[in-house]
Write a structure and sequence with these properties.
homotetramer, mainly alpha, 10 helices, DNA-binding
DNA sequence: TATGAATGAGCATTCATTCAT
DNA sequence: AATGAATGAATGCTCATTCAT
């Protein structure tokens, strides 16, 4: 009988094999030829495992995000206050360790803003939703634990979005110079108002 | 001297002549040939007045923004409360009347995220700064008039950025469904905390 | 021996299994993958029974032609005059019931014109010869029965080819508008000259 | 001012420059790169003068046909009888001097049978119509001059198409072995019946 | 000052066929 | 006998910018 291949695993193998050039060249300059070469397979083989170029990118990003999510989860568990947890979320936008993934995120946003096709939107929604649900539960938990006032819930989406907003502004203008400082300052001020003083 | 004035005027003429196709086709599908044709000049002539394609786009966007700013200023003056003024700013992200300019804004962000060259950043900074300074003074004035608490100042950049963040999220994911509602809700909650109750 | 019979039968089974997609997609868009899928076998298995893709098409067309020939033969026997019999042959080029086979015929001609390799020519010759021999005997019989003049024999190949010629012209130009009418008119005029008046 | 180029002439120049490779490689294997190279211009320049690859082919074929038509017209004028004139038309299908154009004609038919898009049909119609009108007037003239019987008119389309039909049959099968002989024989038999005996 | 002819790099994708198992 | 994973060649078209006139 024929060779049986773990399609799922091979997808990952191919995707991971080009992680480096993906980071180096960015999404737009990544060619199928490069991917095939770095994966050590023929170009045709790529299309046995991926529907198209976009599909490969989705797979890579998916893997990277999942890797990162595990780390985040560990770190979140290690933190005790809601403020620290919220701040941890915003670290992605400025920390040195996320510089590569952040660059991809920019390209992703860029592509989606230009071509908001449904697959792209769905993929981005899937990625973001997981984050947002975590974020929501952190705020809810903060209230439940008597750490935050009841109305903190009303600020959930705003607290979640403000990082994104400042990130974009800092990426496309000089208005936000020191993103890290600005974010900390904002969250500090917010939590001063939202935390129940003991 | 007269010649210089003509140059400035002709820049505007050329830029304005293609405003329509600019809105219709978007930035990426706007070709120099189209611009030349709609302006009634040769392709070479375009390069007598503009350094490159980007330069033309800057000119068009500049004109459009200035047009819009005049309108905004009028509307701001007609409003009495700080909350209303702040909300007016965020209207850009969802109002029907700004749909075309908003589309361009998306494309602009998209381009800048990919190619954050200094000219692009400077231009975007120039555009945003003016807005931000207005925004800053509105908050400051709100405090001065005893409408807002002193610490409202600490939220200026956050209040300014949250619209951007939700806008991006609503553009690239399905997480923010009803942008208008979400924004109003956030600002209402914020101002409940920031306004001095009488 | 039994195995050989199985091979022949399996060829037919595979060929017939994709008759539908063959009609739907045409020759060029029919892929080996589709054939294998619709036949419920692996791609490699196809090559156990067929030399190559062309071979599969030959098999399908062969089956379809044989099916059609039986029908034609029945209809021919039911007709009494030579003119009617000749006209029946040309029905293929315009009748609604042959629309699918006609489409394949076009594709077949198209392929053969581009790649007149010997196998293709032989196959087409085999298909056409049977028809032509019928046609020839019909004319001969018409003469023998005193229905047609002796010299009618000289027009055999012409009468046989004119349908093909008009069909091609109607397929690649707008010159022949109403193929059915033109053919009838031509045959009527011809038979007026060839029939022995009583 | 700018350089003024005779666009019409340059189209012809480019088209003619690749006449040779056109004959050698056939339509399908003719690449834009080859055309550009043989014309001594950049690939982009090709698209200043032609809408697409098909457009180039149309131009080449157009030129070749016009060249040939002039020759045909001269030869027609030199012939005295209608039979000779009609036979001259069919020479295209077998004569040695038309071997290259005939090859193109095959490819053209092949392409059009597969993709009968309107532009292709229109082009082919334009080419064929001119021929057909000539053919029609030759028959009409033959009748007017008392050379042919009145009813010869009814055979015009048939006489025109039979050459095409036999040509296709000889191209895709072995049924018509000696196309030249068969055609002559058919036309001889036809004219025996259509000519007014003196 | 105005023109417009010329340029050329760059890239995803399909699918018949093979052959190791 | 049956399979299905792997392969890789091959190509049209766009458009910002330049520069000779």
């Amino acid at each position: 009988m024929a060779i049986i291949v773990d399609k799922v695993q091979k997808r990952k193998d191919i995707a991971l094999s080009c992680k480096e050039i993906f980071f180096q060249n960015g999404i737009n300059d990544l060619t199928i030829s490069q991917i095939a070469k770095s994966a050590g397979v023929g170009k045709g083989t790529i299309y046995e495992y991926f529907k198209n170029k976009e599909d490969i990118i989705f797979e890579i990003v998916n893997i990277l995000i999942k890797e990162r999510n595990i780390l985040i989860k560990e770190k979140l568990d290690a933190l005790s206050t809601t403020k620290e947890k919220v701040k941890l979320f915003s670290r992605f936008f400025y920390s040195d360790e996320d510089v590569e993934l952040r660059q991809l995120y920019k390209e992703f946003i860029s592509i989606t803003l230009l071509n908001p096709d449904s697959e792209m939107l769905s993929f981005q929604t899937a990625c973001s939703s997981e984050y947002y649900l975590w974020f929501e539960s952190i705020i809810a938990e903060g209230i439940a634990r008597g750490e935050l006032k009841e109305n903190a819930k009303e600020f959930t989406k705003g607290l979640f979005s403000v990082g994104e907003g400042m990130f974009i502004k800092s990426s496309v203008t000089h208005i936000v110079d020191d993103l890290e400082k600005e974010l900390h300052q904002f969250y500090d001020s917010m939590f001063t108002m939202l935390e129940i003083q003991k």
